[in-house]
Write a structure and sequence with these properties.
The relative contact order is 0.15. The protein is an alpha/beta fold. It has a seven-stranded mixed β-sheet. The chain has one domain. α1 runs antiparallel to α3. It contains nine helices and seven strands, in the order αααββαβαβαβαββαα. The chain is about 50% helix and about 15% strand.
Amino acid sequence: MIALRSVLFNTIFYANLIIRMIVLSPIYFIIPRKLAYSVPKNWARSNHWLMRVIVGTTFEIEGIENLPHGSYIISPKHQSFWDTYALLPNLDDPVYILKRELMWIPLFGWYAKKQRMIPVDRGARGKVMVEVLKRTKEELATGRQLIIYPEGTRRPPGAEPQYKYGIARMYRDLQLPVVPIVMHPGLFWPRRSVMRYPGHFKVQILPPIMPGMDPDAFFAHLIDVTESASDQLLIDTVERNPHVPLPPSAVERLAELRKAKAATA
């Protein structure tokens, strides 16, 4: 039954994406940019409804009050396609730094360009990164929120963290609060899998890390607060959803956490 629900969800999910892009394009590309953001935000809401109705997956967000006003940097854990769009309805005017190849995708790339997303070559250095920083500052000067995945790519739940130092450079250069966000959607929407699992999970928005720290100290602090909260949330999520199959990374990390707890008991 779960497999059938997964196939049905995936089919409707991608049809929902493509049909909305095509049908709403005349409106999207005519109206002002920020107003046009209602199109992807409503698409995100429709996906939450599809997950709830077809798969039986629900979520809740804790810590909305931790989001500052105006411009700030959002630093979420990244496990699934789900977390690339899920928070859009809760953000005012987010901007992404994304792989330049994504801008070449028909329709999607045009939509991203309309929202002034910032493309970057992952292997870029020097002048290219200077230009990316310049573009980022221009967008944030208008009150937007920058979304950066500090590990750079999707990681399975419980996997050893692999944070990139780029977020520390952004923190230093932009002088804005950084808001860590932890969640485990990868247990319900695994990467590189067509399966979707029912259950309930939390998204936790942690208190912002205010500007002014030494970049190295900030980087260590970001990893510490994010991973500590992520570990506890992993335990809570698995206890609440014992039926969900766990990837090896989650099994291994849970064993480590239980061993550490037993040693301190």
